[in-house]
Amino acid sequence: MARQSLPSPYATLVSGAPVTRSQVTLCGGTTHLWQYGSDRSADHLVVLHGFRGDHHGLEPVVAHLLRERPGLRVTVPDLPGFGASPPLPDGRHDVPGYAAWARDLVREVAPGGTAALAGHSFGSVVAAAAMSGTVPGGQEPAAPLARALVLINPIPRPPVSGRGRLGVGATAALHSLAGALPETAGTALLRHAALTRIASVAMVRTPEKTLTRWIHEEHDRYFAGFATRRSLLTAFRASITGSVREWAAGVEVPTLLVGGARDDLAPASDQKELTTAFRDARLVLVPGVGHLTHYETPDAVAREIAAFLSEA
């Protein structure tokens, strides 16, 4: 008999969060959005998920945020090529392409620069690039995109050159193989359950066995939810070669970095150094957790974000 899936440890909190789903046309393609909390509140946060994720992975943080700030509105899109959102028509699934999409997104759902923008992991790179004054073509944004920036488990340096570069290199080799195989076989390799579990095990830090099992099941459910091999491989290359640091100096708004003290993808020393690259930033390191703060310690992440939004 198959083992029954575990319920989310945050299920009660998540189910109590009002949510509506919609879609918008951005950069010529359709983006699916989930909006949580008050749909008319001026207190607005837009959050971008990480590589191979979708909006589901951010729901624990969103639910805890709404408990901390009941009047908050939180918009979470599925990035193009992931979850319910199809790839961008022009195929630009690199950091500049996603940054252009993110700028259009924020201006569509939160015009006037009154919202805050956040991103987790690869989403932190996209969010920082979107907020930077250094945009493709060297043009300055016509108006402030957002009033503040929040980076959750930010990527301080390209993972391909960081402490975990051996593991990243092995993963890159598998992605190269998947790209060289025929379409069906290559896509099957990228979606293989064993690769998902290896990645999941490498990131989990909690000693709680039930929480660990649920995190693995979450990755099993959503890690393979990419649209096409082509968009996935392009985004993967961007995720291992991009970093927040290359955009940090161009960010003019107050910035909060929330990282894990045991994050192998972003060692604490690199995160501390990254903070100094911004004009106005502070770092909070959550003890005992790595790259999965959104799953392991969403309450701590939410408290820090809520306090920051009250000040920014």
Name the features.
alpha/beta; 8-stranded mixed beta sheet; Rossmann fold
Backbone structural class: alpha/beta
CATH homologous superfamily designation of the domain at 11-157 and 242-311 = Alpha/Beta hydrolase fold, catalytic domain
State the CATH class of the domain at 11-157 and 242-311.
Answer: Alpha Beta
**Mean of pLDDT:** 93
Order of helices and strands: HEEEHEHEHEHHHHHHEHEHH
Q: What is the number of E strands?
A: 8
Give the count of helical stretches: 13
CATH topology of the domain at 11-157 and 242-311: Rossmann fold
Give the CA-CA distance, first to last residue. 52 Å
In the predicted model, the low-confidence regions spanning at least 5 consecutive residues are 134-138
CATH architecture of the domain at 11-157 and 242-311: 3-Layer(aba) Sandwich
Kindly estimate the percentage of residues that lie in beta strands according to DSSP: 15-25%
Summarize the amount of helix as a percent range. 40-55%
* Biggest sheet details: 8 strands, mixed
Q: Give the strand line-up of the largest sheet.
A: 1-2-4-3-5-6-7-8
Protein name: AB hydrolase-1 domain-containing protein
Domain AB hydrolase-1: 45-303
Pfam families: Abhydrolase_6
